[in-house]
């Protein structure tokens, strides 16, 4: 368990220094009480979710952009911009892409809510990305 970063997550404005253990923490914030080890340990699941969510957003967007690049669009935004194209192929690709992109984000937010509620364990990023809906152009 990464006590230092969990403390930073719990109290971003707190002033403290520490060595390798809880007992080595020097708590310099007079207005914020030093959390107990039990409080730090109980914050770990929230901290784990916070880290996962932070990473997941970037990886999901990369997943979406990479899918658009399969059809030589620069990224997801470029692909979606063809939704009103006069070129029928580009228009159909953009429509399929936007429908899929929305499904990806809806699924991701739904799964994140389940994880945050404790109904599902925090997966690895790889497991999460593999569970996203697929687009078959």
TrEMBL record:
Name the UniProt record assigns to this protein: Uncharacterized protein
Lineage: Bacteria, Pseudomonadati, Pseudomonadota, Gammaproteobacteria, Legionellales
UniProt keyword terms in alphabetical order: Plasmid
Organism expressing this protein natively: Legionella pneumophila
């Amino acid at each position: 368990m990464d006590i230092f970063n969990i403390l930073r997550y719990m109290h971003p404005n707190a002033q403290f220094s520490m060595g390798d253990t809880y007992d080595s923490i020097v708590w310099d914030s007079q207005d914020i009480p030093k959390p107990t080890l039990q409080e730090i340990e109980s914050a770990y699941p929230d901290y784990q979710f916070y880290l996962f969510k932070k990473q997941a957003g970037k990886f999901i967007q990369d997943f979406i952009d990479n899918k658009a690049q399969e059809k030589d669009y620069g990224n997801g935004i470029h692909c979606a911009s063809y939704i009103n194209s006069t070129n029928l192929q580009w228009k159909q690709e953009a429509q399929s892409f936007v429908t899929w992109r929305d499904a990806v984000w809806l699924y991701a937010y739904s799964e994140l809510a389940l994880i945050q509620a404790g109904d599902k364990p925090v997966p690895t990023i790889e497991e999460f990305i593999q569970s996203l809906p697929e687009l078959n152009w």
